[in-house]
Amino acid sequence: MTPFPFSKSPASVLPQSPPYFVSNFGYWEGDHSYQTAGVKFLSEFVSRSDLRPQSKILELGSGLGGSLVYWSKYYQPKLLSAINLPGEQSDFAEQLFVSTDTKVVPFIHGSWEKVKSFGNSSYHYVFSLDASYHFENLQSFYKESYRVLEPGGKFVFTNFQITESRFKKLWWLYIPFLIPKENLKLVEETIAELKEIGFREIKRENWTKPVLLGFIEFSKTLPASLKIFGKVLNLFVKNFGLTYHYYVFEK
């Protein structure tokens, strides 16, 4: 992933739209600034999932917390919960919730496995934006997401995928992206795993162009570390079959 996913640096390094501080890749159709592309990513993510007001939402890997503020303001959820790794991002998010009067209950500092303490059929939506591909035991994460969803609930997430099985042999190249070896899979393999658990596919979209390629172009204007990251990301997209997909599955 990027050099900043576990810190609060995107809040200062990237142009943001307060209070929606985010650290996603951005959605770049018609946008040239992260200030709008980062928030547009949130908008595209939920509008395509048919998010309804007064829903119970759980976000796993909530980063800087701007997404939770966004869900709260525009969709007035009945319940808004989240889990995020302890560290600067979670600390920043808690301060953001206080300043924006955003109610997130519970907000847990920890790994995604903390979801195992949640009750069955507790949420209408489980969201994971630019997070789940980092998780160890990804199939277990899918199963837990299924368990905590109400019947008819939706699991919405983004995921890195590879285009050919031969790229699995190059798993060690993905270490800088913090993607475990076991998570390098074809789109078809990911879909098969989810269907085996019991999910029904609602939507899948290839967001490589509007998200990854857009971020790569924008990264040319960023500080050196992110500029280098953009070049590496471009290398993987062009030569190592890296793609980026958006999914909606229903329980």
Give the helix/strand layout.
Elements (H helix, E strand, L loop, with lengths): L9 H4 L20 H14 L8 E5 L5 H10 L3 E6 L3 H13 L6 E3 L13 E6 L9 H11 E14 L24 H11 L2 E7 L1 H11 L5 H16 L2 E9 L1
Parallel strand pairs: 1-2, 1-4, 2-3, 4-5
Antiparallel strand pairs: 5-7, 6-7
Compute the number of helices: 8
Distance between the termini: 29 Å
How are strands sequenced across the largest beta sheet?
3-2-1-4-5-7-6
**Overall geometry:** globular
Largest beta-sheet characterization: 7 strands, mixed
Structural class: alpha/beta
Radius of gyration: 17 Å
Poorly predicted runs: none
Q: How much β-strand is present in the residues?
A: 15-25%
Mean pLDDT: 94
The beta-strand count equals 7
Oligomer: single chain
Q: SSE order in H/E notation? A: HHEHEHEEHEHEHHE
Please estimate the helix content: 25-40%
Explained architecture:
The radius of gyration is 17 Å and the shape is globular. Helix 3 links the parallel strand 1 and strand 2. Helix 7 packs antiparallel against helix 8. A seven-stranded mixed sheet has the order 3-2-1-4-5-7-6. Helix content is 36%, strand content 20%. It is built from eight helices and seven strands, in the order H-H-E-H-E-H-E-E-H-E-H-E-H-H-E. The chain is of the alpha/beta class and 251 residues long.
Q: Key features?
A:
alpha/beta; single chain; globular; 251 residues
Q: Summary?
A:
The mean pLDDT is 94. Strands 3-2-1-4-5-7-6 form a 7-stranded mixed β-sheet. The longest helix is centred in the last third of the chain and has 16 residues, at 224-239.
